[in-house]
């Protein structure tokens, strides 16, 4: 049975009580009274964490909040189909030392995080090619180690090293994680926050927002979520990220224009753009 030290036990047994959904230092607001606590417990126990949810639900902000909470710097990897072993582990380069050329290895984010006890955040891990990710298997299971193919070095992870990965399921350009990789993670679904929680978040970030703008933004977001759930809009139309963009712009221009630039023009489907703009117009008086 895996053992945890006293500090880890204290972290794992925090009592969050009624204030569990308050915004944590780092910026993430949990949509439930237990989600953030459960993720922290799993990370404390050394489990690799997989965050699943729609774009703009706050997965990256959640990872940043965990980094702040645990007092650990975070190495980030933005995954794409071009991701290769060098992008993960590092690369060799030639440098000049004392008048002669010397080959040095520049450590990548995975190696740095393992050695320094940092958190490793892998965003959109299901964007990577299937043949790239098996190199991570050894550091994601009980071994917590890997052999660097570029140097031959066997790297054992620092005791505080942790892994957080995020995926947007079902999006264009993504592929299902293979079972061997997925089985190494403890998985959490990260939904959009809504209702009173979303209102509290909006007011806490924008305390000077006027009542009319707040009501319009919350009402529009609620209807966008319904349309997304019905399959009439992409999930991104109801993302928290777009909501913040609109709110930021609304302090400097009319709300209708803020929606045009902060949400509508980001959408690629013409019919969806028209649907969203018509919806927005019904809630905003020019």
From TrEMBL:
This is AAA family ATPase. It comes from the Bacteria. PANTHER family: MAGNESIUM-CHELATASE SUBUNIT CHLD, MOXR FAMILY PROTEIN. It holds the Pfam family AAA_5. SUPFAM superfamilies: P-loop containing nucleoside triphosphate hydrolases. InterPro entries: AAA+_ATPase, ATPase_dyneun-rel_AAA, CbbQ/NirQ/NorQ/GpvN, P-loop_NTPase. Residues 45-196 form the AAA+ ATPase domain. Coiled coil: none annotated.
